[in-house]
Amino acid sequence: MILQIANLHAKVGDKEILRGVNLELPLGQVHAIMGPNGSGKSTLAQVLAGREEYTVNGQVLFDGKDLLSLSAEERAFMGLFLAFQYPVELPGVGNLYFLRTALNSVRKHRGLDELDAVDFLAYAQKRMDLVEMDRSLMSRSVNEGFSGGEKKRNEILQLAILEPKLAILDETDSGLDIDALRAVAKAVNALRSPDRTLLLITHYQRLLDYIVPDQVHVMTEGRIVRTGGKDLALELEQHGYLADAKDHTLPVGGHR
Amino acid sequence: MSTDIREFTEREYKYGFSTDLDTDIVPRGLSEDVIRLISGKKKEPAWLLDWRLEAYRKWTQKKEPRWQNVHYEPIDYQDISYYAAPKPKKSLASLDEVDPEVRAMFDKLGISLAEQERLSGVTVAVDAVVDSVSVATTFKKRLAEVGVIFCSFSEAVQNHSDLVQQYLGSVVSNQDNFFAALNAAVFTDGSFCYIPKGVQCPMELSTYFRINAADTGQFERTLIIAEEGASVSYLEGCTAPMRDKNQLHAAVVELVALKDAYIKYSTVQNWYPGDAQGQGGIYNFVTKRGLCAGSNSKISWTQVETGSAITWKYPGVILQGDGSVGEFYSVALTANYQQADTGSKMIHIGKNTTSSILSKTVSAGHGQSTYRGLVQVHDTAIGARNHTQCDSLLMGKDSGASTFPYVEVKHPSAKVEHEASTSKIGEDQLFYCRQRGIPEEDATAMIVNGFCREVFKELPMEFAVEAQRLLSVSLEGSIG
Question: pTM for the full model?
């Protein structure tokens, strides 16, 4: 197991958003978490990535280590990656420079040599080809003036460059037209590997037409309430989340 | 992780050492006698002594300005020594005879007084000024071959007296303002640079200023003249030892660009900023002005101000020649208890003159940054254009930024634009970087450097790299 979440709770102020999440992700698989707005999917992603504004309880083991005691950057060093729902703009910071700094920082903490500008460029170009990203975006500032699709593609490029063990993709499909969605999905599929787990967070089943998951989990009101194979997504598409929450009283991880 | 941060926060001002040099210091205090003594030591012509005395008399009638948005205890001008010079062993016949102690000091600062090309292939001639005097100037011979004069101010007074007399005070008069008048009365050295007609100066010229002695002021004067069609790029760098008492640095820089001439003047100012509690540091009260005397001439100021307890300067351009261009690019960073009140003055007199001002201020800790600028369009300046942009970046809740743009337009055809913005480094930006494995300190430096990039790209390559590094170092420990 690359990730084991047991009874995870998270609050902002007095508001409890995660109410006892249980989830296990084996290495090399693709899992999806689906659920309605406000069910806590994005909060789960943020909490796992180390966002500090939440009060967190419970246990999370990442690659056998206690994840919750680590800072955001330490989690990144260990190989946890979050593709943001809303990628942040960094005016004046060159995309290529940003990526090289990130990669070298991670490499340094893993005891690897840092890559110089020339070696990095050669490596980055290969990864850009893999995710079919327009090279002109590399000379621009990070996400500044990027279209919605370009921003999401840039997240996937970062994933490709940092080669994490666990990548959480938070609504990577939102705001994409069908062509952009196909392109992003193709890039993500190219990054599937026995050494990497992908966790897709999405509202819609359509992403899963292109990135076929090993398992689908349903999240409502801060808990994983159901787990099934890829067909579960289709069922949800037909019946909706609410019907699901009422009809199925045997949640996978509902105990408190 | 925590050890990293401790290392960062405990890292100190790298240039804060002092060197034990045998120094000739004039007793503290200022009077006409002291000025005569300084002038005598420098074997100056009578006209220059008279010019100094006139400045001194005007100075005694002037009041120290108080309108700037900075706060400091009154300065006791009788408690400063106005002349300090490392004693030369003998007069120098060549660079090889520079006092080894002085050479070692500059080596430690990373400034080579040897005439070697740098690895990057860029050649830089250096004039090294310690306390009140110039101790060495490199590449003089090679520059002389193309007619460029680059020497200490004192040397110029001796060897090029006519040029000095013609241009000294022509841009900043000896009674321009309180600190400029003080400088005119007691200035001791600085750099002089003359580029003859049609010559593109073959290398970067630079002056490296070092305050070493305690309880002294540094009052240097720089004069750069670019004749018709000439061009030059000039760099200035500054450091000082860490001392718990404030030291005054009141310099004057005058630039003169004749027809079609171009002067690019870059500063990376890293005077000792004081400690984390605001104790000590340099008061950097400087008057810098360029005169675009001829048509289609251009003067460009670029400054990166990271040091000094207080920075107070407004590099400006008088756009007299028709079609002349003035530019000002500035990054001013205040951390801990530093204060900066800086900006530019663009005075449009000639027709179709253009100026642009780009100011970036970064305030961290208890730092206070103020942009203050004046754009003046005279009734003769038909078709004048100015664009001003002031951006402020705040870090932490105790820092502050203010903007005071003054605009005076006396011709209806003028186009004057002003843009200003204030932003904070966002939690979202920091989290994004940290999620990618970039620790908070590095992420902050990266975001600040990104904010300043438009200014850094105006600096010569080597300086741009230095400036970025300096900014990162200055910000260390100021987060949270």
Answer: 0.79
